[in-house]
Amino acid sequence: MSATAIETETLSRRFGPRTAVDGICLRVPERSVFGFLGPNGAGKTTTIRMLLGLLQPTGGRARLCGIDVTRDRLRAAAQVGCLLEAHGFYPNLSGRENLDLTRRLRRFDSSETDRVLDLTDMRHHAQDRVGTYSLGMRQRLGLARAMMGRPPILILDEPTNGLDPDGIAEMRLFLSDLPDRSGATVLVSSHLLGEVEQIATHVGILQAGQLSVQGRLSDLLADQTRAIDLATSDDARARSLALAAGFDLADSADGLRIRLKSRDDIRAEAAALNRALVEAGLDVHRLVPRRPSLEALYRQSATRLSEAA
Amino acid sequence: MLSVLRTELTKLNRSLALLLALAAPGLVGLFLLLNGLRDGQQLPWEIWLATGSGIWAFFMLPMSVTALTALVGQAEHAPRAWDHLRTLPVPRWWIYGAKAVMVLTVVALMSALTLALAVTAGGLVGVLRPGNAPTGSLDVLTAAGLMMRIALASVLMIAIQFFLAVRFASFVPGLVLGIAGTFFSVVATSSRIGVFLPWQMPVNIMASDSWRAQTALGLGLGLGLVALGLSVAILARRDVA
Which residues lie below 8 Å from residue B74, measured CB to CB, with a gap of 6+? Predict the structure, then answer.
């Protein structure tokens, strides 16, 4: 198996005159949880459909575990379990019957159905008709089906859709644990940046069909500007003092924001700034270190793209 | 391929398609029963079974095929199950081929059930109103042969309805064509060129003119198998956006 579980080379897809996916080079490392982010219409679902062989690319190629999806669809498809936005369950059949359909098609042992039902805590509802399931239960059943046969890659399109807060928390725990537990690589497409930030080891941000950012999440966040939001009894003087102490000012719409010099020791720098302000006789009303976040990264990438456009 | 066919049959459990497969032959049987209980009705078994086969071939089979293919198609379109099926490491033509074979199998079973219920209705009339009991000898083998030829002549109609039902997410195109085809086959029964209308081929098997019967069987089955093969190939190759 290659070190990259999912790889695309200038993957593109046009629908008539419209380019939905524009030459993206995606790299999803093995055993990672990869957050695939982007606004509606950015091309996430089109990319996922090409990875799954549901759509033919109009340019480039995609590989799953080193296997070309277009040239060898059957072998590539055997590497993946997927949860799509539309679950595709038959409402007239029970949860178990639905899983058994997939199990038989993939020629897995009959014990596989029980295994994935237990994994997703769906055993008690297995005999109920899927037509009676809540959206959350369908989501869990979809996850159970995706994990059938222990595929090395899981592609999950909006897995927390329709889940209540408890369900979202359960799903978060479940997904973040998967690479260690099963050795699987997980690609999660989601709108919930906060959720992705908690589970993803890597992220890719798709904007208008182009991959604007991708990489290890911790590296990407470390590259972000770190700053402190400040409110004092005299902000104008605080600004001068900060500049004199060698700090830069950062743009902020709601008050004074000081850009930190180092990336490593925020606490020490914040304390030094606080000391300088207090020793100068200013009252410090607020001093809040701004943590780098996926949301900020997402906004930055959107801004960069719109500026480039 | 057998595992795919088995999954297709499993999908019929508790489905509307299964209900239809039982209800349509049931209606033919019910009609024969009520008709047989009327005053002054005593028919030979040959006419009795030909009446059942005629109703089936003339109207009920084309309408049932229209409804059955629409229900089978919608069973996949409604929950968007095609997406999941097409992601599986299974040749796509197996998936569509198995579905086509399942529809053919259900139509064959519906034809057999129609014949069985026609015989049952005749027997019931004999019990409930002995004076109206069908007369003469009961030749089930001949009737079964006729039903089999009717079913075989319907393959082209099944292929067309199957393609429309699976190709389009909406059930409307298939339903409109099925209703239109049945309508024209009813109003153009005596037309010589009617035998070339796929929806009229099954009933032409019962024509006294052997040319019509042979043409209906040859075209219905021959072109039907070609059309089914083409349908499966086209459906398996196309992108589903």
Answer: B165, B171
Look at chain B and count its residues: 241
Residues B115, B53: contact at Cβ < 8 Å?
Answer: yes
Contact between chains at B79 and A89 (C-beta distance less than 8 A): yes
In the structure encoding, which two tokens stand for residue B102, read together? Answer: 């399942």
Answer whether B2 touches A (CB < 8 Å): no
Is residue A47 within 8 A of residue A21, CB to CB? The reply is yes
DSSP B29-41: HHHHHHHHTSTT-
Report the distance separating Cα A128 and Cα B98, nearest Å.
Answer: 27
Mean pLDDT of all residues belonging to chain B: 93
Q: Are strands A210-216 and A59-64 parallel, antiparallel or unpaired?
A: unpaired
Six token digits for residue A250 = 């950062």
pLDDT at A261: 66
Structure tokens at B71: 């229900």
Q: What are phi and psi of A152, to 5 degrees?
A: -70, -20
A166 class by beta-carbon count within 10 Å (0-12 exposed, 13-18 middle, 19+ buried): exposed
- B80 to A104: CB separation less than 8 angstroms, yes or no: no
State how far the Cα of A38 lies from the Cα of B191, in Å rounded to an integer: 62
Q: Give yes or no for B240 touching A (CB within 8 A).
A: yes
Provide the H-helix boundaries in A183-258.
Answer: 193-199, 217-222, 235-244
| Residue among A73, A88, A104 whose CB faces B79 most closely | A88
Please report the ipTM that was assigned to this predicted complex.
0.87
In b/e form, how buried is each residue of A204-236, taking b as 16+ CB within 10 angstroms? bbbbbbbbbbbeebeebbeebebbbbbebeeee
Distance between CA atoms of B168 and A90, rounded to whole angstroms?
A: 19
* Closest chain B residue to A47, measured at CA: B241
Enumerate the residues of chain B whose CB falls inside 8 A of the CB of residue A56: 239
User: What is the predicted pLDDT for the residue at A20?
Assistant: 94
* pLDDT digits (tens), chain A, 309 positions: 448 999 999 999 999 999 999 999 999 999 999 999 998 889 999 999 999 999 999 999 999 999 999 999 999 999 999 999 888 999 999 999 999 999 999 999 999 999 999 988 899 999 999 999 988 889 999 999 999 999 999 999 988 877 888 888 888 888 888 888 778 899 999 888 888 888 899 999 999 899 988 999 988 887 776 778 888 888 888 888 888 887 877 656 667 878 776 666 777 888 888 888 899 898 988 888 777 788 888 887 777 777 776
Give the phi and the psi of residue A289 in degrees, each rounded to 5. Answer: -65, 130
The separation between CA A194 and the C-alpha centre of its own chain, rounded to angstroms, equals 9
